[in-house]
């Protein structure tokens, strides 16, 4: 266990082939989205990003949105998760015309389950942040691809190609 501030957090690294950790989070419209509601119907690309409306996160969300039709043809939905609140997500979505689902995890509950939190120093202060990471979950709820510390540019196409190759 590592001690971060007053919070105890076990550092998790997920691997392919195991059951994906359950999630249930609100989207931009404050509607709850859960992994269980998608099982048996859709594959899920679950990507975690640090912050709405920042350069890398905007690039990644725009690239995923641009490929929405291609993902849809493969029975796949794309879901982005950050610690921003639902209002921030709605503004981010509307500003760029994003089509990906954006879910809010302000207390990092789901982020911790997926092992995407890390500590970084900003202006001499230690702060918890999200490591840009992506998980491809099949219709049965199993992790098919696990990628930590990804680069935003070109990542959506990389994930689309991985899904096509496993079909």
Detail the topology: elements first, then pairings.
Blueprint lengths: L1 E3 L2 E3 L14 E3 L5 E3 H4 L4 E6 L6 H12 L1 H6 L2 E7 L3 H11 L4 E4 L4 H5 L3 E6 L2 E6 L2 E5 L5 E6 L6 H11 L2
Parallel strand pairs: 5-6, 6-7
Antiparallel strand pairs: 1-2, 3-4, 5-10, 8-9, 10-11
Number of distinct beta strands = 11
Q: How widely separated are the two ends? A: 39 Å
Radius of gyration from the alpha-carbon trace, in angstroms: 15 Å
Give the CATH topology: Glutaredoxin
Please list the strands of the largest sheet in the order they lie side by side: 7-6-5-10-11
Q: Oligomerization state of this entry?
A: single chain
> If helices are DSSP runs of H or I spanning 4 or more residues, what is the number of helices?
6
Low-confidence stretches: 1-10
Could you describe the 3D structure shown?
With 167 residues, the chain is of the alpha+beta class. It has one domain (24-30, 42-165): Glutaredoxin. Helix content is 29%, strand content 31%. It is built from six helices and eleven strands. The protein has helices spanning 35-38, 55-66, 68-73, 86-96, 109-113, 155-165; strands at residues 2-4, 7-9, 24-26, 32-34, 43-48, 76-82, 101-104, 117-122, 125-130, 133-137, 143-148. Strands 7-6-5-10-11 form a five-stranded mixed sheet. The chain has a two-stranded antiparallel sheet with strand order 1-2. The protein has a two-stranded antiparallel sheet with strand order 3-4. The radius of gyration is 15 Å and the shape is globular.
């Amino acid at each position: 266990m590592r001690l971060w501030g007053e919070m105890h957090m076990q550092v998790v690294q997920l691997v392919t082939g195991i059951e994906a950790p359950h999630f249930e989070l609100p989207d931009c419209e404050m509607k709850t989205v859960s992994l269980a509601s998608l099982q048996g119907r859709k594959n899920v690309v679950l990507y975690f990003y640090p912050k709405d409306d920042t350069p890398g996160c905007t690039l990644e969300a725009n690239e995923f949105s641009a490929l929405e039709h291609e993902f849809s043809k493969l029975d796949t939905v794309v879901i982005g998760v950050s610690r921003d609140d639902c209002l921030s997500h709605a503004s981010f979505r509307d500003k760029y015309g994003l089509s990906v689902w954006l879910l809010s995890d302000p207390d990092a509950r789901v982020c911790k389950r997926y092992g995407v939190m890390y500590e970084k120093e900003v202006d001499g202060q230690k702060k918890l942040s999200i490591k840009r990471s992506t998980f491809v979950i099949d219709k049965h709820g199993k992790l098919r691809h696990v990628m930590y510390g990804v680069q935003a540019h070109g990542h959506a196409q990389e994930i689309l190609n991985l899904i096509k190759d496993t079909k």
